[in-house]
């Protein structure tokens, strides 16, 4: 658990981060989201003390990070940035294995893990293992950066726009792969992004910042369906409810109940498709069906208000 307590960073007269108190839960991805200059990177870098706070505290597992030597602190915190800084004279495999090698881990086990991680981030080990960073595209280098951070196996991972240099398709593929890896390994991740869709797709929790302050902390659904302020709605944009519904399956909204006589919708469509069908059929309730069998019903009101059934 990472707790920020009345955290502040002042540059001259300007407060880059002001009175920020928020907790990032263990084993989850939290996105720091907000417009350019709102203090996301400053906040992230205060966690591993690359930036020293002006006041306030950062507690890591209950321990005040000011009481830890920065190098000891950073051993338990991976850090992935857009300009990854791979070692140019080392191969991809050696780059990924940097920390395990430094720690004197078994070479054969490390080599196996490196191959596994390359595979996980979508780089064929046989093709990429021996390449040098200069032979990689920006997106491939970024994938190596993610693999390297994971190879060190830190419980906490800080990421600053980690998927920024990728084209949209590569980006979505790496996001999906990363999400699976994070679930598997149970890492605590704090990720800076200004990309709303990335935050909605990847994060369990979103901390939306504005001018150095926290506007809202909550789940993607909290922000979309229950925005805490006009700023939150404005930042997410008018069409955000529809975009969110397009990204989630209709089954998340199914309630048990009789579905006789209602128009049906297959269980594998998005919530947005169900909403469109309601408009088309002039009804406010649909039967959701799987293999011809009714699963239950979904209502207009639940879709519009984001009232999902507990999963
Ligand atoms: N070293 C510095 N000296 C003075 N001001 C700084 C310094 N670093 C950051 N700032 C200011 O602090 C504020 C927050 O910057 P920060 O980089 O944390 O924002 P951000 O939300 O990460 O922005 P972006 O999305 O553009 O990267 C900005 O107004 C920035 O100009």
From TrEMBL:
GO terms for biological process: quaternary ammonium group transport. Pfam families: ABC_tran. The keyword Magnesium does not apply. Residues 2-236 form the ABC transporter domain. SUPFAM superfamilies: CBS-domain pair, P-loop containing nucleoside triphosphate hydrolases. One of its GO terms (molecular function) is ATP binding. It comes from the Bacteria. PROSITE patterns: ABC_TRANSPORTER_1 (PS00211), ABC_TRANSPORTER_2 (PS50893). This is ABC transporter ATP-binding protein.
């Amino acid at each position: 658990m990472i707790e920020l307590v009345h955290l502040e960073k002042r540059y001259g007269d300007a407060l880059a981060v002001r009175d920020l108190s928020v907790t990032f839960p263990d084993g989850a991805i939290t996105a720091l989201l907000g417009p350019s200059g709102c203090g996301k990177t400053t906040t992230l870098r205060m966690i591993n003390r690359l930036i020293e706070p002006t006041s306030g505290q950062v507690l890591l597992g209950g321990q005040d990070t000011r009481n830890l030597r920065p190098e000891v602190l950073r051993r338990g915190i991976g850090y992935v940035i857009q300009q990854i800084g791979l070692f140019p004279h080392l191969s991809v495999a050696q780059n990924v294995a940097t920390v395990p090698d430094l720690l004197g881990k078994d070479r054969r086990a490390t080599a196996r893990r490196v191959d596994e991680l390359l595979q996980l981030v979508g780089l064929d080990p046989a093709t990429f293992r021996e390449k040098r960073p200069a032979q990689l595209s920006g997106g491939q280098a970024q994938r190596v950066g993610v693999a390297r951070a994971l190879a060190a196996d830190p419980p906490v991972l800080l990421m600053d726009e980690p998927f920024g240099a990728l084209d949209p398709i590569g980006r979505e593929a790496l996001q999906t792969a990363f999400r699976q890896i994070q679930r598997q390994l149970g890492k605590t991740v704090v990720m800076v992004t200004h990309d709303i869709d990335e935050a909605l797709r990847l994060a369990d929790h979103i901390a939306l910042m504005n001018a150095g302050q926290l506007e809202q902390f909550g789940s993607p659904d909290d922000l979309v369906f229950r925005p805490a302020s006009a700023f939150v709605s404005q930042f997410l944009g008018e069409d955000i409810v529809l975009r969110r519904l397009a990204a989630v399956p209709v089954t998340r909204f199914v309630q048990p109940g009789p579905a006789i006589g209602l128009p049906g919708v297959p269980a594998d469509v998005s919530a947005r498709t169900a909403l469109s069908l309601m408009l088309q059929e002039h009804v406010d309730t649909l039967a959701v069906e799987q293999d011809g069998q009714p699963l239950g019903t979904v209502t207009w009101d639940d879709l519009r208000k984001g009232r999902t059934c507990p999963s």
